[in-house]
Write a structure and sequence with these properties.
By secondary structure, the chain is an alpha+beta fold. The protein is 43% helix and 15% strand. It starts with 5 loop residues before the first helix and ends with a helix.
């Protein structure tokens, strides 16, 4: 990222969005039962929000199973990369990737390069 200009960074960041499945404040760790409950209660809102963005790549940060149920992606054929990352093509050239949360207790380079590796394989 150091080799791109500030303007390029700003432009790139405008093309990225994050959707929280839990729409209310919480703590730094997630209570899975609570997340499942509120995400299912808000499923219509989450699905509408997702369709509004219509992203080319969706990376589920630790919530892949929950999100695919809420967004209706269970009926899609889910595949695994050679390194075990689950993904599906929800529409032509539009992918959903079930990956770890960015704050997972793993070295950042492992998270970043594992995701880059998965995306390269998916697009190849």
């Amino acid at each position: 990222m150091e080799h791109i200009s500030e303007e390029e960074r700003k432009s790139t960041l405008k093309s990225i969005c994050a959707i929280n499945l839990k729409k209310s404040p919480g703590t730094h760790t997630t209570d899975t039962a609570s997340l499942n409950k509120v995400a299912n209660e808000d499923s219509n809102y989450i699905e509408r929000q997702f369709l509004l963005y219509n992203p080319d790549i969706t990376i589920c940060g630790g919530t892949g199973d929950l999100f695919k149920g809420i967004a209706g992606f269970c009926e899609f054929e889910w595949k695994r990369t050679n390194r075990g990352v689950w993904w599906c093509e929800r529409a032509p050239k539009k992918y959903v990737i079930a990956y770890c949360h960015p704050e997972a207790r793993v070295d950042n380079p492992l998270i970043v390069y594992g995701l880059i590796d998965a995306i390269r394989e998916i697009y190849s």
